[in-house]
Amino acid sequence: MTETESNVYDVVVIGAGPVGENVADRTRAAGLTTAIVESELVGGECSYWACMPSKALLRPVIARADARRTPGLSQAVRGPLDAAAVLAHRDYYTSDWKDDGQVQWVEGIGADLYRGQGRLAGPRTVEVTGPDGARRVLTARHAVAVCTGSRAALPGLPGLADVRPWTSREATSAHEVPGRLIVVGGGVVAVEMATAWQALGSRVTVLVRGGGLLDRMEPFAGELVARALTEAGADLRTGTSVKSVSRENGTVVAVTDTGERIEADEILFATGRAPRTDDLGLETVGLEPGSWLETDDSLRVTGHDWLYAVGDVNHRALLTHQGKYQARIAGAAIAARATGERGLDTAPWGAHAATADHAAVPQVVFTDPEAASVGLTLAEAERAGHRVRAVDVDLATVAGAGLYADGYTGRARMVVDLEDEILRGVTFVGPGVGEMIHSATIAVAGQVPVHRLWHAVPSYPTISEVWLRLLEAYRDN
């Protein structure tokens, strides 16, 4: 019988992705002893199967598209992408799915890394089962932070497992370009992967149950991305559900709700996310296994003064950058409570309140065109009871946009609160707009009054001059 090792720390973090790493970094910086537990690769989903590999696949696609819209350069980039080189570039950014560098970083901050499956075993207690079957019990004096993220949620279609469908993981790590690819879904993963694999040589069919793409953004975002995907050669079908799937002689067959059979080499289901909490021992502390974990704004789990849930697992904002923001808040809150050196500031926009989760969440969709947004859409602001007005500008009217690309197509919107004259939300769609969204995030998070924005002068001739056009449209209408 294997002897159980026991160790005591101030803080135990379950999950060594970017979120868990940032919690550990903040607690170590505060002088708290910290253990971090990881069952897969240190660095997590973002580093190996999400943010980094997906953007490595997409960057050559977007660069080629921009070049093709640039006079004097367009004729030089008419050929196909070098798929092998793109995939090798992706492999470089995932460190070939080796986590040595990430492990060194954890060691460098002075945290102790435990490899294995971590499960709660009662209050402030985490049991780790290592790859060799050895058991270790970690006890936390002050806090346990659950940073286990989310996984792809697959629909309950009969025989789906036998088809061996792609999820986001397979879509970002595949080593061959499928001749034909079916993408099921209309969200961020669906449109980004459709964009990437279509450009790399797949014939892509996108099946969307709803009426359009990117339904959590302003409607024009999905419309412009849908138009571009179609023009690139993708077969986009809205109002279409998959009723059954099978693999026949190596070919995937998807049958839609109208009875149509669509054949492909691979099928990607990008139909949502589920929390990685099903094998976490939540039942030992009175919580439901497999559930999202509800938290207050300091990221402390409701009803548990020692337990924190940070990142995707709390379902506040399923974005890596937002999870890292939460981690900084949670780490500061844990340290403040543990040391008692200063009180908690949990007022809106306070040092220990993740207020941006409610009011200023930024996101970039790396399609062609890019779609970027922060804060509330017009519909969300109206549902929240704000008296607002949407101000729209055609980005093609901005001098910098025309210089950026011939035939530039894009749109910008700001949602203005008419009571306070601050921005509740901003959306940009067009080539290159991803690099502009942080200015909007500052305006929304900082609650900068419209009259003050007049004094934030955009440089000419850049696409950022759209800010002036938006303010003029607000003033003149």
From TrEMBL:
Residues 361-467 form the Pyridine nucleotide-disulphide oxidoreductase dimerisation domain. The keyword RNA-binding does not apply. PANTHER family: DIHYDROLIPOYL DEHYDROGENASE, MITOCHONDRIAL, DISULFIDE OXIDOREDUCTASE. It comes from Streptomyces griseoviridis. Belongs to the class-I pyridine nucleotide-disulfide oxidoreductase family. The keyword Transmembrane does not apply. This is Dihydrolipoamide dehydrogenase. Its cofactor is FAD. It is an enzyme of class 1 (oxidoreductase). One of its GO terms (molecular function) is dihydrolipoyl dehydrogenase (NADH) activity. Its EC number is 1.8.1.4. Residues 9-321 form the FAD/NAD(P)-binding domain. Keywords: FAD, Flavoprotein, NAD, Oxidoreductase. It holds the Pfam family Pyr_redox_2. Gene3D superfamilies: 3.30.390.30, FAD/NAD(P)-binding domain. The lineage of its organism: Bacteria, Bacillati, Actinomycetota, Actinomycetes, Kitasatosporales.
